[in-house]
Amino acid sequence: MKVLVADDISLLGLQKLDNLADTEVVVRLGMTEAELMEEVKDADALLVRSQTKVTPAVLDAGRKLHVVGRAGVGVDNIDVGHATKRGVIVINAPDGNTIAAAEHTFAMMMSIARYIPLAHQSVTAGEWKRKDFVGVELLGKTLGVIGMGRIGTEVATRARAFKMKVFGYDPFLTEERAGELGIVKTDLERALREADFITVHTPLTKDTRHLIGTEAFELMKTGVRIVNCARGGIIDEAALCVALENGKVAGAALDVFESEPLPANSPLRNAKNLILTPHLGASTLEAQEQVAISVAEEVANILAGKPFKNAVNLPALSAEQLTVLGPVLELGEQVGAFMGQAFSGDLSDVQVTVGGEWTKQDTGFLSRTVLKGLLAQRYADEVNYVNAPTLASQIGLAVSDVQQSRSRVYTSFLSVSASVSGARHTVVGTLYNGSNPRIVEIDNYRIDAEPHGTMIFTYHSDQPGMIGKIGTMLGEAGVNIASMQVGRMETGGEAIMLLCVDRMVPDDVVDAIGEVPGVRRVRSLQLS
Ligand SMILES: NC(=O)C1=CN([C@@H]2O[C@H](COP(=O)(O)OP(=O)(O)OC[C@H]3O[C@@H](n4cnc5c(N)ncnc54)[C@H](O)[C@@H]3O)[C@@H](O)[C@H]2O)C=CC1
Ligand SMILES: O=C(O)C(=O)COP(=O)(O)O
């Protein structure tokens, strides 16, 4: 396994990966896109911070790539959509740098309240201008926090310790949570109109790009002070320069920029009362160690096929949920694979129904595992849990999830029903004793088969001699039958047969079975 490290990531994390058997950690900092495309060709994992751009071209070049690990929070430098399409897991380290970013925000806020960097420059230039640097106190002032996630919340609690009044704006902030934090939940307009200090802590999205622009500045009090330690682009830099120049904004502090590194000719470099740091929010020893360890552990788990928790492009599944749902998810993949191989043809829609006790669990992940099994027939190893829904929508396959609280015969079951080349087929599975997978129904025929290994599946007329004929043909080809299941609706009608065999059945034998009079369809299945 090759783990390619493209940004400066703490050795404490990298050593964890380097210590793994069969894993080589290759550190190459400051690569151009072309160099990165070359290095990533044989990499299983790519680790980055905010500097390296993980573009579609880089992801396409990484043919073996399983995972991109971001040692930090923001993944706006990674084309997550393209990674998802390619089936590459993107993980981040969401908790490790929260305190570092919150403390940096506070350092910035105090610096603009008391002109610390400007006063420092003045003193080192030989001046002693006490009158020019009369600041303001935080006590009693109103702080508007835009984005009350992990960092926004830590900033808000620190501001309360400074006896500030805090307004929090975040679509997910509840009155109850605001009450617990001792802050006021407001809308954006009130936060902008009434705040003396404003700090942004959202990701950069299409909704937050230039959230603080000309119109927002117009709403603000004259003399407001603003901090951005989240993402460049949330504040419109050109509009900020104007507001600093005309005095609407008394001071601002930016750690992040629309373009990084900040261009040499950026007007921000000469703006009045503006302090700048080069994206240092997460740059503490503690934060860097924490994010590196977190990302290394996650990547190690992913490469070893073990559960992981911080995927950005997969629904979250806790280790606890995985313990309970693991066998159900595995069953989903097996039933999907059975369906895909037993009824190959043009798929137009698939319905995944969970019934009985399992409906009490969050089974949102289940349709991904079913799709992975179902689409493996068409995409082989290219399909995984990450890209299965994308590949399904690419081929126009509509997927629906249904919960059915009343169980049929079984305490819990999973039913996959799909339209294949115009015909509807259904396969039902369950777990015996909570962990042994079984296929218990195929198109309303009751059976009981373990979805495992090599199988021969037929649709045929219920007539004497069928089982014997097929058994003899397999025997003559040297294929041993381990178990056999037959099902029929009525005597002499249509029937199914599912044989578990000990080895692959040669294609010519499968074809010969298909030609036996009365056999309507035969398929050879290979389940893992
Ligand atoms: N300067 C630096 O070095 C660092 C920057 N960051 C950045 O800080 C930001 C926040 O990080 P966390 O608190 O860890 O993330 P988080 O995901 O915990 O919080 C983000 C919050 O923003 C809210 N939000 C999203 N869209 C919104 C909108 N339109 N209006 C209002 N609220 C909105 C979300 O509901 C969420 O509560 C991210 O952009 C992250 O990349 C994080 C660490 C270090
Ligand atoms: O975690 C984040 O979102 C950050 O912005 C930190 O970026 P960095 O890892 O210091 O390049």
Automatic annotation (TrEMBL):
Q: Which Pfam families match?
A: 2-Hacid_dh, 2-Hacid_dh_C, ACT, PGDH_inter
- Which top EC class is given? oxidoreductase
Keyword RNA-binding on this protein? Answer: no
Please give a single GO biological process term from the UniProt record: L-serine biosynthetic process
One MF annotation (Gene Ontology) recorded for this entry: phosphoglycerate dehydrogenase activity
Q: Which PANTHER family match?
A: D-ISOMER SPECIFIC 2-HYDROXYACID DEHYDROGENASE FAMILY PROTEIN (AFU_ORTHOLOGUE AFUA_6G10090) (PTHR42789:SF1)
What family classification does the UniProt entry report for this protein? Belongs to the D-isomer specific 2-hydroxyacid dehydrogenase family.
Q: NCBIfam families this protein is in?
A: PGDH
The name of this protein is: D-3-phosphoglycerate dehydrogenase
- Organism the protein comes from: Alicyclobacillus ferrooxydans
